[in-house]
Design brief:
The complex is a heterodimer of chains A (833) and B (446). Chain A has 833 residues and is of the alpha+beta class. Chain A contains 31 helices and 14 strands. Chain B has 446 residues and is an alpha/beta fold. Chain B has a domain at 43-183 and 270-423: Alkaline Phosphatase, subunit A, CATH 3.40.720.10. The longest helix of chain B has 28 residues, at 201-228. Chain B starts with 46 loop residues before the first strand and ends in a 23-residue tail after the last helix. The chains are: A alpha+beta (833), B alpha/beta (446). At the A-B interface, helix 7, strand 2, helix 12 and helix 13 of A face helix 6, helix 7 and strand 10 of B.
C-alpha cells in the first residue's frame, strides 16, 4: 500500500543524531556499511521510509521531492520522479553526508529494482521523446554537406570558418536543435557563403584577386619539421592545402614572426627559407645575417626606452628589411594544391655562457637574436591575370572545361555538357536535379527543378555563361530551407525512412546522406532491421565516420576544442608552448579515433595501454626513444601514470587554471563527462578565489579547499567533486606527472567518495570506474544519444539508455554495439506526438 | 490533429546563434581616404556608442574626489583629462540585475531586472542600443553594430548556471533574442560593405539585385513550409522569414543610399593576433562606420564580461577575471587597477580619433554620446551598487560635461538609459526596470 505511516516509523531525533555522528565518523574512515544494524534486504518502501521520507515528504517538501506522495511499487506511473531518485542512488549522493545511509548493496538493490520496473514498462510502451520540427544544420554539418555535394577537398577549403559559430561549453553539443536559430547574421552569411562556395566549386574566377592569409600561432615552436607535408630536413614553417579557384598566376608571400618588441626573430645569422608548390621547390631565400650598424642594447628584447635602440639601419632591418621581398609569383592550375613554406634545418648550438631566459612577459620575448627565425604567416594572393600571355587562350570562360581547369569539383558537378544551345536546358535540368536531390535529402519535385532552372535561365539571359548560370542556380539551392533545415513534419509516431536517413548520416558522418543511403530510404527499405544494421556498419567503416565522431562528437565531449585556448603561466611552466597543446589535442583525437576505427570497447578509452605521441609529447610523458614530429602509436611503459583519457594532457590542461591545478574543475568535469553524474553549479555569491595572500607560505590545494569540508552546504556537492579531482593531483597544469605539488609538499592523491570508497591516484580512479563495468559505457551512451538526437536527454530517455547498455554488454561495450543500440532504439526511430 | 498535443511540452526559449564569422571579399586597393563627399551640410547626426569594460573596477582608484565641476580625476580617469569638458562621471547608480557576471553585462543596456533561471533559459529585455537601432534603421544602412574583442560562445553555462550568452553580449533585439557581437574585423567590414567583391557601386548594386531575387524565392518556399507545421513549431521558420525581411530592408536601404560615396579601404584579412593591433582595426572600422553614416549606433565590449584576458603588455600577466577577485587586498587591487587604467588609456586614444575627425561644423566627438563603464563596481564581490559610469562626448549639444554627478538616491542604470534615449531624441517610456529619468542637466546646480 502506498504511503506507510512514516510518522510512526521515524526514529527519534536523538537516536538519529547519534547514528549520524557515528556514521559521520565512520564515513571519514571509509567504512560505508552501517545502517542502524540492518543488513537483510529491505523492501524499497522500507528503505524509503527509513532514509528518504524523513526529508522528502509533503510537509517538508525538501528539494520539491515528495516521496510519500508517489507509489514506489509502481514506479512507471511516476517515472520522472523515480528517475531523479535513481540518479541520486546511483551517485550515492543521497542521503547527504552526515545522515544515515544504507549499505552499498541496498543502494544497488533499490536502484536496480526501480530501473527494472521502469524499463519493463518502457519497453512495453516506449516513449521516444520529442523531436524538433525544425532543426537547422550547424556549421560543421553545412561545411561537410557542401564538401560532399561538390567533392571539395576538405583540407583546402574550410567553410566552417565562414559561418557564425555554434561553439559550446561542456555539457551540450552544438547540434542541439533548440539552440540553432536563424538570425539575420546567419542569413547574410549563408547568402555570401553560398556564392563563394559555388563559385569555387564551379571554378569561376573571383571578381577581384583575393589574398588569403594563413597564420602560425605565436606560441607554436618551430624547431622541428612541422608536418608530414613538409620535406624531411625542414624546420618550422607551414604546409597549406589550398584550393585555387582557377588557373592563373598567384603570389605567395611570406612574413616572418616578430617577437614582443616587433623585432623579427632570429635575424642574427643566415638561414634558408624554402617555398614549395606540390613539393617542388620554387625558390630558396636567405634570411637573417644581413643587419648592419650598431644593434640595440644588450637586452635584445629592448623596451623601446630611449638610448637602447640600435642604429637606424639596424632597426629598419630588424623590423622591416629582414623579411622584405619574400615572395614568389607562380602560375598554378585550378584545384587543390599544396603550398609549403619551411626553413632548411640546421642544428645550432650556442657557444659560451648560456643566457638566462627572460621571464615576466610573453614567451616570444625570450627569443634571442641568434635563435631560430620562424614563419609568421603566408599569404596566397591571386589570380593575377597576365593578359599578354593568356589572351584568347585557356583563361577564357568558354574554354573552362579543358583539362587545365578540370578539378574534382567540376567533374562532380558537370555530369553532362551541352553541345548545342538547344541541349542546355536539358543538361542544366539534369545537373540541378541530381544535386538538389542530395542537397534536399529527398526525391526532387518538378517545383524544385523549375525554381532552380528559373535562376539558371535568368543568369543565362543576363549574359552569363552556362557555368555561371549553373552557379547562380546552385547559389539559390544552398539557401533553400530544404537544404538548411531538417524538417520533421507532424505525422505518425515513427520517423519516415527519409527522416531516418538524414538523422543517421548527420549522426555518423555529420553530413548529408550519400546516394546509397538515400536510395534505400526512397524505396522505403532503410528501416528494415537487417538493412539498417548493414547500413550502420557500412557507414562506420567509411573514414568519414571516424573523422566526424572524433572531430565533432568527441571533440565536444572531451573539450578538445578548447585545448588551444588554454592559458598557462609561463613562469611556473616553462615547458608550455602551443606545440605541446596542439600535440595534446592530436593525441586524444588519434586515440579516440583508433578505438572507433578498431571498434574497441569504449572502456578502452579509460584503460588502454597505448597512445599516440610525437617527440614533443613523448618528452612530456616521459616516454623514451621517440624522435620526430610525426605522431605514432606507442605502448605505454608506465600504466600507473599514463594510459587512457584520464591521463591525457588535453583533459588535464583544460581542467586547470593557468598557475595551478584545480581538483574542483577536474572533479566536476569527471562527474559530468565520465561518471555521468552531473553536479549543479555553486550557489551565486560564493567566493571562489583560492589565491594565496602575497607573502603567506604556499598552502596545498587541499588545505585551501578545506572550506568545502567544513561548510555543510558546500560539502553536499563537494564531497562528490573533490575526491575525484584530488585523485588526479599527480598531474600538473600541463599534464606532467609530479610527486611534489605547488606548495612543495608530496602530492596527496587520496580521496573518499560519497559511497565511502577510498581511492588513491590515477590507478584508484580507474579502478573505481572499471569496478562498475556499465557505468562508463552508460555515460558514453548518454552523450552519444544526446548528440544523435540533437537534444538534451530527458527522463523518458533513461530506459532507452539502460537498454542499450544492457544489450551492449554482450559485445564488450564496443562502439558499434552502442551505436547500433542507439540507431535501433525507438528513441532514435520514433517520435512522440 | 494529434500533433497539437505538443502544447503540453515545455517549450524552451529559443537560443539565438552567436558569433558571426565570414570571409569577406578581398580588396587589393589600399588607401584610407576618409572623405565623405556628397553629404549635405545638414545637421550632423547624433551617434550613440557604448564602450564596455568587464569585471568591475578598482573603485578606490576610479572614484573621483569631489563633485560637480570641482572634481579631481582619479588615477584610472587621468588618461581622459583632455576630454574633461566632454566628460560626465556618474556615481551612485545601481545595476538593475545584480547576479554575478550575467547580470553585469546582461542588464547594462537592457535594464532588465532578471534573467533566465538556468542554462537554457535565455531571457532579458530589449536593449537600449536596439531601441535606437530600430529608430535609425530607416535612416542608415546598418541599423547598429555590435562589436567585441572576444569571439563569443552561444551555448552552455558560463556564470552561475546561466548561459554564456549573458556575458558575451550587451545587445538584445527582443527579450529573448540576444545579438552576436562581431569580433572579426573581416566580418565587420562585410557587414558594412557587403560581399559584392568591391566597393564599386555597380558591382554592389548587381549583387543587391541578385540577393533580392534569391530571397523572394526563398520566402515563397518558407510560406509553404510554414503551412505544413503546427503552430508551436513555426517559431524557427518565423525566425528565418524575419531574417529575410531584415536583409531585404537592408537591401532597400542600400539601394536608396546608392549615391553615398564610400571611402575605399583595404579590407582586413582577419583578427590580428596582437591585442592592440586588433583593437586598432576595430577602432578604424567604428570610425569609418560613423563617419560614413553607415550606422549611428555601436555597442562595443573591450572584452567579454568575465573576461580572462591577460595583459602582459602592461605588466599584468594574470588573467583578468581571477585577478578581479582580489579579496580586498590592496596590493592586488592596485595591480588590477592597471588594467582599468589601460582600458581608459585605450579609450582615450579612441576619443582622440573621434575628436580629430571633422563632422559638420565640429568633430565626430562633439556629435557622439558615449556610455563607458561596467556592470559591476567592486569586482571581488560582484557588487552592483555604485557602478563606474562615464558619459562622454558632446552629445550633439545635449550633454554638459566637466562634472561629477553623485546620485544619492540609488537610481538604477535603466534610468540613465532612458535619459540617454531622451538625449538622442528617441524618447521611450521605460527600459527594463527603469523608474524614471536621471536629472543629468540640473544636478549639482551647473
Amino acid at each position: 500500500m502506498p504511503v506507510a505511516g512514516h510518522g510512526a516509523r521515524r526514529p527519534s531525533w536523538r537516536a538519529q543524531a547519534a547514528r549520524a555522528t557515528i556514521f559521520a565518523l565512520l564515513i571519514g574512515g571509509g567504512v560505508a556499511s552501517l545502517s542502524g544494524g540492518q543488513t537483510s534486504p529491505a523492501s524499497p518502501q522500507a528503505v524509503l521510509d527509513q532514509y528518504c521520507i524523513t526529508c522528502h515528504n509533503q510537509k517538508l517538501r525538501t528539494a520539491g521531492m515528495m516521496l510519500d506522495a508517489v507509489d514506489v511499487t509502481r514506479p512507471a506511473a511516476n517515472a520522472e520522479v523515480w528517475e531523479r531518485v535513481i540518479a541520486k542512488l546511483r551517485a550515492g549522493s543521497m542521503p547527504p553526508p552526515g545522515r544515515p545511509r544504507p549499505d552499498a548493496a541496498t543502494y544497488h538493490a533499490v536502484a536496480g529494482w526501480l530501473e527494472t520496473e521502469i524499463d519493463r514498462a518502457w519497453i512495453a510502451n516506449p516513449n521516444p521523446g520529442r523531436i524538433s520540427a525544425v532543426h537547422r544544420l550547424n556549421r560543421t554539418e553545412y561545411g561537410n554537406a557542401v564538401r560532399d555535394l561538390f567533392a571539395l577537398d576538405p583540407l583546402s577549403f574550410d567553410v566552417k570558418s565562414l559561418l557564425p559559430g555554434d561553439e559550446t561549453a561542456d555539457g551540450s553539443f552544438d547540434n542541439f536543435a533548440d539552440a540553432l536559430s536563424i538570425s539575420t547574421a546567419h542569413l547574410e552569411r549563408y547568402l555570401s557563403v553560398a556564392r563563394q562556395v559555388t563559385r569555387l566549386a564551379i571554378g569561376l574566377p573571383p571578381s577581384s584577386p583575393r589574398v588569403e592569409t594563413f597564420e602560425i600561432p605565436l606560441h607554436v615552436v618551430q624547431d622541428e619539421r612541422q608536418s608530414e607535408d613538409l620535406p624531411f630536413g625542414s624546420r618550422g614553417g607551414l604546409a597549406i592545402h589550398h584550393d585555387f579557384p582557377v588557373e592563373g598566376e598567384y603570389l605567395i608571400k611570406v612574413r616572418l614572426q616578430r617577437q614582443y618588441q616587433d623585432y623579427i626573430k632570429g635575424m642574427g645569422w643566415p638561414q634558408q627559407l624554402d617555398v614549395r608548390l606540390d613539393g617542388k621547390l620554387l625558390k630558396r631565400f636567405t634570411v637573417g645575417g644581413g643587419a648592419h650598424g650598431r644593434p640595440a642594447a644588450s637586452s635584445y628584447a629592448g623596451d623601446g626606452e630611449p638610448g637602447f635602440a640600435g642604429d637606424d639601419s639596424w632597426e629598419k632591418y630588424m623590423q622591416i628589411g629582414g623579411d622584405a621581398g619574400l615572395e614568389v609569383r607562380v602560375p598554378v592550375g585550378a584545384g587543390p594544391h599544396l603550398v609549403g613554406v619551411s626553413f632548411v634545418r640546421e642544428l645550432w648550438a650556442p657557444e659560451g655562457l648560456p643566457q638566462p631566459l627572460q621571464r615576466g612577459r610573453v614567451i616570444t620575448d625570450d627569443q634571442v637574436y641568434m635563435g631560430y627565425a620562424s614563419v609568421g604567416s603566408v599569404q596566397i594572393g591571386g589570380p593575377y591575370r597576365d593578359d599578354a600571355r593568356l589572351k584568347g587562350s585557356r583563361y577564357t570562360e568558354g574554354a573552362r572545361h579543358n583539362d587545365a581547369n578540370n578539378t574534382p569539383s567540376r567533374r562532380a558537378i558537370f555530369v553532362c555538357r551541352p553541345k548545342l544551345a538547344a541541349d542546355e536546358t536539358a543538361c542544366a535540368s539534369k545537373i540541378l536535379s541530381r544535386l538538389a536531390r542530395l542537397a534536399y535529402r529527398r526525391p526532387v519535385t518538378n517545383g524544385d527543378v523549375q525554381t532552380l532552372l528559373e535562376f539558371f535561365t535568368s543568369r543565362r539571359n543576363d549574359g552569363g555563361s552556362f557555368d555561371t548560370a549553373i552557379q547562380f542556380a546552385l547559389e539559390r539551392m544552398l539557401v533553400d530551407p530544404d537544404f538548411l533545415l531538417r524538417v520533421h513534419r507532424p505525422g505518425a509516431d515513427h520517423l519516415t525512412d527519409l527522416e531516418v536517413a538524414s538523422r543517421l548520416s548527420f549522426f555518423l558522418w555529420s553530413s548529408i546522406p550519400d546516394d546509397d543511403l538515400l536510395s534505400l530510404a526512397e524505396r522505403g527499405q532503410l528501416t528494415k532491421p537487417a538493412v539498417l544494421d548493414e547500413q550502420v556498419r557500412r557507414m562506420l567503416a567509411d573514414p568519414r565516420a571516424t573523422d566526424a565522431l572524433v572531430t565533432d562528437f568527441a571533440a565536444q565531449w572531451l573539450n578538445l576544442r578548447r585545448v588551444s585556448e588554454v592559458v598557462v603561466d609561463p613562469e611556473r611552466y616553462p615547458n608550455y608552448d602551443l606545440s605541446l597543446m596542439q600535440a595534446f589535442q592530436r593525441e586524444t583525437e588519434l586515440f579516440v579515433g583508433s578505438t572507433i576505427r578498431e571498434d574497441r570497447s569504449v572502456v578502452d578509452l579509460l584503460n588502454a595501454d597505448y597512445t599516440f605521441v610525437n617527440e614533443r609529447l613523448a618528452r612530456q610523458y616521459g616516454i623514451p626513444g621517440i624522435y620526430g614530429s610525426r605522431f605514432r602509436r606507442v605502448s605505454l611503459p608506465n600504466h600507473d601514470q599514463r594510459g587512457g583519457l584520464l591521463a591525457q594532457g588535453a583533459l588535464l590542461a583544460t581542467t586547470s587554471y593557468p598557475d595551478r591545478t584545480s581538483p574542483v574543475l577536474r572533479g566536476k568535469w569527471l562527474l559530468n563527462n565520465i561518471f555521468g553524474l552531473p553536479i549543479p553549479p555553486p550557489p551565486p555569491g560564493v567566493d571562489m578565489n583560492l589565491n594565496v595572500r602575497p607573502g603567506a607560505p604556499p598552502t596545498s590545494i587541499r588545505e585551501r579547499l578545506a572550506e568545502h569540508r567544513k561548510n555543510p552546504s558546500c560539502n553536499s556537492c563537494h564531497s562528490a567533486i573533490d575526491p575525484l579531482g584530488f585523485a588526479l593531483e599527480n598531474f600538473d597544469v600541463i599534464g606532467g606527472w609530479r610527486s611534489i605539488d605547488e606548495s612543495g609538499k608530496p602530492v596527496d592523491a587520496r580521496g573518499t567518495t560519497t559511497s565511502g570508497v577510498e581511492i588513491n591516484g590515477l590507478t584508484g580512479l580507474r579502478a573505481l570506474l572499471l569496478g562498475r563495468p556499465d557505468q562508463f559505457p552508460r555515460t558514453v551512451t548518454e552523450k552519444l544519444l544526446a548528440y544523435a538526437l540533437g537534444r538534451p536527454l530527458e527522463y523518458t530517455d533513461r530506459p532507452a539508455v539502460r537498454k542499450i547498455v544492457r544489450d551492449a554488454a554482450a559485445h564488450e561495450y564496443r562502439w558499434s554495439s552502442l551505436i547500433l543500440g542507439i540507431v535501433e532504439s525507438p528513441t532514435f526511430l520514433g517520435r512522440r506526438n | 490533429m494529434s500533433f497539437l498535443t505538443t502544447k503540453s511540452l515545455p517549450r524552451r526559449t529559443v537560443l539565438r546563434g552567436l558569433g558571426a564569422t565570414l570571409a569577406l571579399p578581398f580588396l587589393d586597393a589600399m588607401l584610407p581616404a576618409f572623405s565623405v563627399r556628397g553629404r549635405a551640410a545638414a545637421k550632423p547626426a547624433h551617434r550613440f556608442q557604448t564602450f564596455y569594460v568587464p569585471n568591475g573596477m578598482a573603485m578606490e582608484h576610479w572614484l573621483p574626489k569631489g563633485e560637480g565641476t570641482a572634481f579631481e580625476l582619479s588615477p584610472i580617469l587621468e588618461p581622459l583629462a583632455p576630454y574633461r569638458n566632454q566628460m560626465l562621471v556618474l556615481s551612485g547608480l545601481k545595476a538593475n540585475w545584480n547576479y554575478i557576471h550575467a547580470g553585469a553585462s546582461g542588464s547594462f543596456l537592457t535594464g532588465t531586472a532578471r534573467g533566465g533561471r538556468n542554462e537554457t533559459e535565455i531571457v532579458a529585455d530589449v536593449s537600449m542600443d536596439q531601441l535606437l537601432a530600430r529608430h535609425f534603421a530607416t535612416e542608415t544602412q546598418v541599423a547598429s553594430l555590435e562589436l567585441s574583442m572576444d569571439a563569443p560562445a552561444n551555448a552552455g553555462a558560463c556564470t552561475g548556471n546561466l548561459s554564456c550568452v549573458y556575458t558575451h553580449t550587451l545587445s538584445w533585439r527582443s527579450p529573448t533574442q540576444p545579438l552576436p557581437m562581431e569580433w572579426n574585423p573581416r566580418v565587420v567590414f562585410e557587414r558594412l560593405f557587403g560581399d559584392s567583391g568591391s566597393t564599386d557601386r555597380n558591382a554592389r548594386e548587381a549583387r543587391l539585385r541578385q540577393h533580392k531575387s534569391i530571397l523572394d524565392s526563398v520566402s515563397a518556399k518558407l510560406a509553404g513550409l510554414k503551412s505544413d507545421l503546427g503552430p508551436d513549431d513555426r517559431v524557427k521558420v518565423d525566425e528565418y522569414a524575419e531574417a529575410i525581411r531584415d536583409v531585404e530592408r537592408r537591401i532597400q536601404k542600400a539601394e536608396q543610399q546608392a549615391d553615398l560615396e564610400l571611402p575605399t579601404v583595404e579590407q582586413p584579412q582577419g583578427a590580428p593576433p596582437v591585442f592592440e593591433d586588433h583593437l586598432d582595426l576595430m577602432f578604424d572600422l567604428q570610425l569609418l562606420a560613423f563617419q560614413s553614416d553607415l550606422t549611428r549606433v555601436i555597442s562595443f565590449m573591450i572584452s567579454k564580461e568575465q573576461s580572462a584576458r591577460p595583459y602582459p603588455q602592461i605588466g599584468v600577466p594574470e588573467a583578468h577575471h581571477p585577478l578581479s577577485h582580489h579579496n580586498d587586498i590592496p596590493e592586488l587591487i592596485a595591480h588590477m587597477s592597471k588594467i582599468n587604467r589601460y582600458h581608459t588609456e585605450l579609450f582615450s586614444k579612441y576619443l582622440a580619433r573621434l575628436r580629430a575627425t571633422p563632422d559638420g561644423d565640429g568633430s565626430l566627438l562633439d556629435h557622439t554620446t558615449i556610455l563607458y563603464g561596467s556592470g559591476i563596481s567592486n569586482s571581488t564581490r560582484h557588487s552592483g551598487d555604485n557602478l563606474p559610469i562615464l558619459v562622454m562626448g558632446g552629445g550633439a549639444g545635449t550633454l554638459k560635461g566637466g562634472r561629477h554627478l553623485a546620485f544619492t538616491d540609488k537610481p538604477t542604470m535603466a534610468n540613465l538609459l532612458v535619459t540617454l534615449m531622451d538625449k538622442m531624441a528617441v524618447p521611450v517610456e521605460r527600459i527594463g526596470g527603469s523608474t524614471g529619468k536621471l536629472p543629468l542637466d540640473t544636478l549639482s546646480g551647473v
